[in-house]
């Protein structure tokens, strides 16, 4: 029932998906209620292969819920999560959860954890093979962690653990890589290294990367698109369209400065309410053409274009598009 | 040669009372190794201990009914595991509470059953046999049952090995791969029930976690990979059970009463020694982190 992973995972990094032009992921009108509270309201966006998207929001803004909904681990109230390409659901999504606590006494080497990314779902005892070892070595060196292969994962530093977890998540060459707060608890050098690494992986392996963080600044060097979550609503677009003083001030309901220095952006959220008198009700409601809740309309149209052909493609092409009704995998 | 004779007295290996315990000890060691490693990695030593207490109830019931204690151990361990799964929600805390409540109830019932069997059948040894066990009391008629139960536990663990390992490292990672945590957890719980029951037969219900947790805890200090940890745990458990049998056999000449010391004592003592040695070895190892780091870039 599963694709033979070891064969599937040769060095050829790029997944053979037809979707280089189209979006790798479409989230359409996603609404999630959790314990009587609307955590996500009509969230729509799309992600493109080879791009890094930052999911920015305060604690409790619904970032984890959104990532879990994309994974199919969180039942959704309404809306759709559609994944481009031929392979089903979670098989083509890599995930690095928030706060994975790896005990130093765990008898698990970095190599073992990456190997479980390849075949951790399979039944039966794992068999040793040279080809599997080569694949694992390749995955580890792709995240600059080959020298850590035989160390216990629990004994590694936070940044090193993060890299091993990324290799684990990339093991089956997903089209989409989700990371939940990967920069939390990292010091500045590790943060910059992780961000650079993710940018490189997105370009080289043509993966769509979506990572959540509460601080946009470390991501700015590699971030192509940004999704802001505030009070369960989302605004999304290209980085230079959204990371602007006026857009962010509207979203946060307080004055936000965006500085540009030495070709780099810096976002500073002010304490007091902005003088523009903006309130955070900016996100438009969906219109008849499709749920486009974007603050700047950069991504909504991608999603709409993707919908119709994807549904027509089912069962016809070599890579039939899969329509995932979100929540069905639960 | 004389040392060998002192350790293994003439007739040891051909002795009928030694053969069945040797088989039981080997099977139990082999089953407890992988199950114990997972129990320690999952942080479920408490659940393991609760199983042990619940098996004591089963043993007491079996004693009262006059059936083999192993049957009582297994039936109650499986029932207890099912109850913990049903009562305990997903959260660790409520699971621990359910386990604790069940454990207390089990021991209470055990007290009643032991009281009944001592007062109706006037057998005073019931409590000691059930709680502290004796591998020498295992009759060879239960050997097929021991081997069968052991095989079931090993097959279960082998079947879910990879999803179980990943979910033990991080349930989130396993869930992201589409693993059904509930089913994997149930398979593990079943294997745990069988191995605790077998261990209870060997060294007594109360002590049974010693053979489950001890070798695995020592192995975690010595091995870096899950496979090697299992091998270490198995080796330690075999040395402990066989060593216990030999020492108990030897102790028939010891004071005070020339009756032989309890074999369970020797097994548990050897496990403790192995654990302490592993702690020392592990500490030495931690100071020298090994051939790191060669930056490849």
SSE blueprint and pairings:
The complex is a heterodimer of chains A (330) and B (297).
Chain A: H1 5-8, E1 23-34, E2 37-48, E3 52-57, H2 63-71, E4 78-83, E5 93-96, H3 110-119, H4 130-142, H5 158-170, E6 176-179, H6 188-205, E7 208-213, E8 225-230, E9 233-238, H7 239-242, H8 245-252, E10 256-261, E11 264-269, H9 300-313
Parallel strand pairs in A: 3-7, 3-8, 5-6, 6-7
Antiparallel strand pairs in A: 1-2, 1-4, 8-9, 10-11
Chain B: H1 2-7, H2 16-41, H3 45-65, H4 69-87, H5 92-121, H6 126-132, H7 143-159, H8 161-169, H9 171-176, H10 181-203, H11 208-222, H12 226-250, H13 263-287
Helix pairs in contact in B: 2-7, 2-10, 2-11, 2-12, 3-4, 3-5, 3-6, 3-10, 3-11, 4-5, 4-10, 7-10, 10-11, 11-12, 11-13, 12-13
CATH superfamily membership of chain A, which one? P-loop containing nucleotide triphosphate hydrolases
Question: Quick check: average pLDDT of chain A?
Answer: 73
**What oligomeric arrangement do these chains adopt?**
heterodimer
Helix content of chain A: 25-40%
Estimated structural class of chain B: mainly alpha
Q: Using DSSP, what is the number of strands of chain A? A: 11
Could you say what the CATH topology of chain A is called? Rossmann fold
State the name of the first-level CATH class of chain A.
Alpha Beta
Mean pLDDT rating of chain B:
81
């Amino acid at each position: 029932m599963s694709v033979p992973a070891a064969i599937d995972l040769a060095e050829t990094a790029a997944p053979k998906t037809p979707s280089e032009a189209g979006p790798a992921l479409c989230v359409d009108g996603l609404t999630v209620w959790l314990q009587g509270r609307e955590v996500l309201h009509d969230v729509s966006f799309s992600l493109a292969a080879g791009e890094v998207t930052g999911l920015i929001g305060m604690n409790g803004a619904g970032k984890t819920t959104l990532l879990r909904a994309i994974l199919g681990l969180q039942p959704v109230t309404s809306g759709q999560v559609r994944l481009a390409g031929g392979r089903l659901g979670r098989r083509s999504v890599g995930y690095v959860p928030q706060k994975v606590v790896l005990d130093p006494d765990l008898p698990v080497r970095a190599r073992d954890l990456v190997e479980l990314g390849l075949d951790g779902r399979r039944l039966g005892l794992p068999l040793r093979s040279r080809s599997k070892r080569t694949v694992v070595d390749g995955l580890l060196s792709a995240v600059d962690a080959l020298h850590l292969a035989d160390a216990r994962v629990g004994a590694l530093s936070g940044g090193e653990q993060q890299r091993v977890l990324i290799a684990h998540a990339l093991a089956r060459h997903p089209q989409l890589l989700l990371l939940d707060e990967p920069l939390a608890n990292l010091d500045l050098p590790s943060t910059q290294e992780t961000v650079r690494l993710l940018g490189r992986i997105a370009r080289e392996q043509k993966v769509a990367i979506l990572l959540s963080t509460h601080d946009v600044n470390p991501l700015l060097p590699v971030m192509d698109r940004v999704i802001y979550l505030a009070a369960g609503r989302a605004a999304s677009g290209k980085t230079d369209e959204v990371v602007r003083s006026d857009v962010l001030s509207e979203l946060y309901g307080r004055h936000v400065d965006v500085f540009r220095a030495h070709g780099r952006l810096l976002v500073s959220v002010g304490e007091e309410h902005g003088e523009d008198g903006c309130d955070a009700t900016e996100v438009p409601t969906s219109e008849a053409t499709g749920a486009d809740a974007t603050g700047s309309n950069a991504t909504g149209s991608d999603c709409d274009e993707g919908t119709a052909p994807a549904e027509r493609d089912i069962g016809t092409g070599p890579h039939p598009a899969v329509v995932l009704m979100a929540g069905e995998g639960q | 040669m004389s040392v060998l004779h002192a350790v293994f007295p003439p007739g040891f290996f051909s002795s009928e009372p030694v053969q069945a315990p040797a088989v039981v000890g080997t099977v139990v060691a082999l089953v407890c190794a992988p199950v114990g490693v997972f129990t320690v990695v999952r942080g479920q030593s408490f659940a393991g201990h609760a199983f042990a207490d619940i098996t004591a109830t089963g043993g007491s019931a079996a004693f009262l009914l006059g059936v083999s204690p192993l049957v009582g151990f297994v039936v109650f361990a499986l029932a207890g595991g099912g109850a913990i799964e049903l009562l305990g929600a997903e959260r660790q805390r409520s699971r621990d509470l359910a386990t604790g409540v069940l454990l207390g109830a089990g021991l209470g019932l055990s007290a009643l059953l032991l009281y009944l069997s001592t007062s109706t059948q006037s057998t005073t040894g019931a409590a000691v046999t059930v709680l502290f066990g004796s591998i020498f009391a295992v009759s060879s008629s239960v050997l097929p049952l021991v081997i069968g139960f052991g095989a079931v536990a090993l097959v279960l663990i082998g079947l879910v090995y990879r999803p179980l390992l990943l979910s033990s490292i991080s349930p989130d990672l396993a869930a992201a791969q589409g693993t059904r945590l509930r089913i994997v957890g149930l398979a593990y719980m079943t294997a745990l029930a069988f191995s605790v029951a077998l261990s209870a037969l060997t060294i007594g219900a109360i002590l049974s976690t010693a053979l489950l947790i001890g070798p695995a805890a020592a192995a975690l200090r010595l091995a870096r990979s899950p496979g090697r940890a299992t091998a270490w745990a198995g080796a330690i458990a075999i040395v402990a059970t066989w060593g216990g049998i030999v020492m108990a056999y030897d102790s028939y000449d010891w004071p005070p009463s020339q009756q032989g010391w309890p074999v369970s004592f020797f097994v548990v003592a050897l496990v403790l020694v192995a654990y302490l040695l592993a702690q020392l070895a592990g500490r030495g190892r931690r100071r020298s982190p090994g051939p790191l780091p060669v930056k490849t870039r």
